[in-house]
Each structure stands twice: as structure tokens, then as C-alpha cells.
């Protein structure tokens, strides 16, 4: 790894659950010695990518990310592109809808539209979605390039709930079923009170850009609703694919006979 690679890899240790990290913890997580980690952290602070709390001495993401995020959105306003389809799906189902984007080896939510119901599934914007425990993660694995998906299948998976898939053979059997269905489902596998349905959003080169997902309180999600919602989620995902200037791959169209389901 180059010095730049190493410095940027430190940023990967931040997550929705871990927003501040100290020097010793960085060294432990990264495997770098403290002096090397400190040099790289100091460089990231000078560039504005990190800030250090004066009292706790812990690091958090800095303001430069806001500046670059605004520039990115101005050049290619992703949230503006995907939100209309997500909003329509939210209105059709009155359930929580979220759109995720695959980047930097992670699948993270970029748009979340909450259900108007009193009892609803909660999804945090910007959270990383486990590949083995969420409908979006499993959907991404099912329809992604096999070589790219292999990077995320060759790991030790975390167990979140009793129904979380952690066995490689069981996961691959599930992915095979999802490929035939055209969408992914996760029932009580990440959150014991939530069931979700997700469909792939494709990019310009036919890659899985991200996923459109609907999250529902598990006690409400009947087999009949899964069948109904899956059609709506796939249609919304196809709309986003087209809004991104991409096309649904022919292999996906043939599998799901999308010509008869959606425009």
C-alpha cells in the first residue's frame, strides 16, 4: 500500500456506530504502529478531512467532506435523481423506503423516506448495510459481478439475529433463489422487528449501482404483501436505473420477464 492508500484506509474505520476514534484505537484497527498512524492522521487533519476534539483527543470526520459532497452533488445530483422514485414508492406503500449506493466497498443508504405510519421501520441515512443481513446487501450480492461479490462473500459474517445468514453455502443458495425472483428479501435478519424487500439499481456499465429497498414492521409483512411490494420495488428500481441514464441488463429482463411487468 502507498502512503496515500494507508491514510485513506484509516477513514474506512468510521461508521454510523463509530463516529469518533482515538489514536490507540486507530492503531489497533489498522495494524499500523502509533507513530505512523499519528503522521497520517495529522496529515488528514491539516487537509480538513479529520478534526480532533481538543478535550477527548479523538478524531472525527472534518469539514472538507462537506465541501466535496456539495461539489459532487452539483456535478451529479444523485439524491435529486433517485428521490422521486423513492417518494412514489413511499406513497404507494406507506412504508419506509431507502436507496443505497455501493462505493468504496460499502453499501450505504443515501436517501431515506420514512413511513407516515405511527408504527414503522427506522433506517438511518448514511448507515452501512450488512451484506449478509439486509435485503439490500443480499440483493447486491445476488446481482453483482461474481468477482466483485466474492470479495464480500469471503469474510466472516456477523450474526445480528437468530435468522441472520452466516454460512457461505446457505447464503449462496439464497442468492441463487433471489436471482430467479429478481429481488431480495430479508425477514427479521438484521433487526428482529423489520422485514425488507430490495431490487437492484443498475449503472451505465451494467453493474449493480445500488438498491431500492422497502422496510416494513415484520408483523405486517405477509407473503401477499411481499409479492405485492416486490413488484413495486422492482418498478421503482428500474425507474432509477433509467434516470441514471442506464439500462436494465438483458439477462435481468429475461429472468424476470420485465417487458411484461414494467416499461
Keywords:
263 residues, Beta-Lactamase, 2 domains, 7 strands, Arc Repressor Mutant, subunit A, two-stranded antiparallel ribbon, five-stranded antiparallel β-sheet, alpha+beta
Could you walk me through the main structural features you see in this protein, from its secondary elements to its overall organization?
This protein has 263 residues and is an alpha+beta fold. It has 11 helices and 7 strands. The strands form 2 sheets. A 5-stranded antiparallel beta sheet has the order 4-3-7-6-5, sandwiched between helices.
Distance between the termini: 46 Å
Report on the biggest sheet.
5 strands, antiparallel
Helix-strand pattern, N to C?
A: HHHEEHHEEHHHEEEHHH
Molecular shape:
globular
**CATH class of the largest domain, anyone?**
Alpha Beta
| Approximate helicity band | 40-55%
Please tell me the total number of domains. Answer: 2
Question: How are strands sequenced across the largest beta sheet?
Answer: 4-3-7-6-5
Global Rg = 20 Å
Mean pLDDT: 92
Query: Based on helices, strands and strand pairing, what is the structural class?
Result: alpha+beta
How many helices does DSSP assign?
Answer: 11
The CATH topology of the largest domain comes to: Beta-Lactamase
Total beta-strand segments: 7
CATH architecture of the largest domain: 2-Layer Sandwich
